[in-house]
Amino acid sequence: MRCADGRPGRRGPLRLLLLGPLLVLLLLGGTGSASAHAVLRDSDPGDGAVLKSAPQHLTLTFSESVALLDDSFRVLDPDGRRLRVGEPGNGPDGADTARVTLPAGLEQGTYTVAWRVVSADSHPVSGAFTFSVGKATVSTAAAALATGPTEDPVTKALHTIARYLAYLSVAVLIGTAAFVAVCRPPHVPLHEKLSRASWWALLAATLALLVLRAPYETGEGPLGAFDADAAGRALTGRPGIVLLARLALVLAAGAYLLRMARRRRRYGWTGAALAAGLAATWAAGEHASAGLQVPVAMTSSALHLLATAVWLGGLAALLAALHQAALSAQAVRRFSRVAFASVTVLVVTGVYQSWRGLGGWDALADTTYGRLLAIKLMAVVVLLAAAAVSRRWTALLTTPAVAEPSGGRSEERTVRTKVAAAVGGPSGPPASTPVTASPPQSPSPSQSPSASEPPGPDPSAEGGPDPAHRRALRRSVLTEVAVGAAVLAVTTLLTSTLPGRAEAEAATAAPAVVGASVTDVPFDVGTPGGRGTAQITIDPARVGDNSIEAVVYGPDGGISSVPELRISFTHPGQDIGPLDAGLTDRGGYWGNSFLNLPVAGTWEMKVTVRTSDVDQITETRAVTIH
User: Is the dihedral of CA 144, 148, 151, 152 positive or negative?
Assistant: First the structure.
């Protein structure tokens, strides 16, 4: 590509600057599990519960409505075998519950439940818990539990890149159209190329998101897109319907762009309606569609995206105009006013969305969402600083030249108005003369350059005098475009990260998942063969009912039978105890399924082992109960 002045185009630096955000997405967003807005509030049976009889159903209650998968529940028995359960569905309390029927006649022991659902904001969320029937057991199932289908890194990376390209392309598409419609620049071929390229990129990204929807929900690899049942379920769910609506709007926008290009007409209200519809599909498929103040949040989210597109996409169109065409000062003033209004909308909606997502100042540093938001805010500050630099160059370019004496005669200079682009606020001094080069005039013989002198710089090559200022303005706007692309990359990560408010709710709504506490207590009664180790397991080591099992190992490491084993618990800080664990000999080990420890904290566990009628020893260990 060559610029209007005949010099080679500078696509290379722009491509490298836009490649940076893609690398950030791959490094920060390409691995790890998906985070979403839905929070598990409660489960029935509860995590770690020990039931006297087997339950008939499993019920999960979430903070918002969820969509279910064919594989939403996986239940493993005490031996690690997967049980056949009923078809998952919503519970009687509404769409924010998930329920499944368990098989009859569950045997005693600990069962492991892995679950996976799709949050109302389109992101999958998963987890796991255990419950016991009759007594708690330490089984290989709990130790080897997978918390649901793992996130396939290839699927997640492709999905994240497609979402970023969708953000970037819709911003350029809407911003270019808004720039042409409001600023009314001269015909710029690169504007048409920008519109076509961004439309094709948006179409490709939307199709990619539709194809990847099924494996993204199930956590499978990209080949999971060929599962007809999973694909059909994904496309008929709420996120799939939103993507299909976006695809229809993209196709309608393509037809509209083609008609406007053929008739050489400017964009009107139809284009504005299509832009608003596209922005609404993002609002309906992201965090704004669930949680607090949904109608206000969706309106704010759509306005935020439109303002971002008009500003950042308009900058891309302005950069194209600076490379290929002359701009009137009136057109630049229009863009300056529109950019200032866009920044105002961005600030207002951004403050609201930050408050809604964070919930408190502590979340800014204590949560992943808050840290990403801080990075985005810093990038926006850099963006505004680049806009201030652009305003400075604009002020220099809008200052008209003055008449200067030359050789005793006053030679009047042609006053031209340069490109004014105060991209973040009002423009400089008003002017109305278009920025174009003066018509070429035939030089007089006395003005003709000699053959030995190299030709001087052509003012028309830069659209007027002070080409250095014009180049500096182009570099400044290019920096704004690159930083804007980085801001969109961070925004992509933000929309797939659990908001700080929801993370705090998750911490208070669900108890922490704590595994069994295993303590080895060596002992030696001082007689031959009187040495060994008592291994005590407390499950789940939380306040309330726990199961306790104790196994005694002899000096050779094998299981040893002892005539008596007693364990008691004392909480010195609360002056509770001693509480007898009530162990009974169960043939090979000592245990009790109903040990109640009423408060959290550090308990003193006294273990008394009697190896004969007269030989016994007591050891004390500290255990933590959550």
Answer: positive
Distance (Å, whole) CA 205 – CA 461: 38
Give the Cα separation of 23 and 14 in Å (integer).
15
The DSSP element (H or E) to which 262 belongs, if any, is helix 238-263
Residue by residue, DSSP assigns 527-549 as: STT-EEEEEEEEES-SSEEEEEE
Q: What is the 3-state secondary structure (H, E, C) of 130-195?
A: EEEECCCCCCHHHHCCCCCCCCCHHHHHHHHHHHHHHHHHHHHHHHHHHHHHHHCCCCCHHHHHHH
Count of all residues that appear for the chain in the document: 626
Q: Give the pLDDT confidence score for residue 497 in this predicted structure.
A: 74
- Strands of 544-553's sheet in order across: 517-524, 531-539, 544-553, 590-597, 584-585
Element counts in the chain: helices (H) and strands (E): 14, 18
Beta bridge partners, 612, equal none
Give, to the nearest 10 degrees, the angle between helix 314-324 and helix 153-183.
60
Cβ(51)–Cβ(45) under 8 Å? yes
Q: Which residues contact 560 (CB under 8 A, 6 or more apart)?
A: 532, 552, 553, 554
Q: H/E element holding 381?
A: helix 368-397
- Three-state DSSP at 15 gives helix
pLDDT at 327: 66
The C-alpha atoms of residue 417 and residue 281 are separated, in whole angstroms, by: 42
Distance between CA 406 and CA 398 in Å, rounded? 24
One-letter amino acid at 269 equals: W
Among the residues of 10-79, which ranges form H helices?
A: 11-29
Exposure b/e, 330-365, CB count within 10 A at least 16 = b? bbbbbbbbbbbebbebbeebbebbbebbbbeeebbe
**Closest C-alpha to 417, from 429, 406, 407:** 429
CA distances from residue 543 to 48, 215, 547, 581 in whole angstroms, order as listed: 10, 39, 12, 14
Q: Which residues contact 197 (CB under 8 A, 6 or more apart)?
A: 172
Rounded to the nearest 10 degrees, what angle do helices 467-494 and 314-324 cross at? 150
Tell me the per-residue pLDDT of 565-617, one tens digit each, with 9 for 90 and over: 999 999 888 778 888 988 988 877 888 888 888 888 889 999 999 888 888 88
* pLDDT tens digits, one per residue of 222-231: 988 888 888 8
- Bridge partners of residue 116, in order along the sequence: 126
β pairing state of 616-625 and 576-580: unpaired
Q: What is the DSSP string of 349-380?
A: HHHHHHHHHH-STHHHHHSHHHHHHHHHHHHH
> Which segments in the chain show pLDDT lower than 50?
1-36, 139-149, 398-465, 510-514
**Separation CA 287–CA 492 (nearest Å):** 12
Q: Compute φ and ψ for 196, nearest 5 degrees.
A: -65, -45
Position 392: which residue type? R
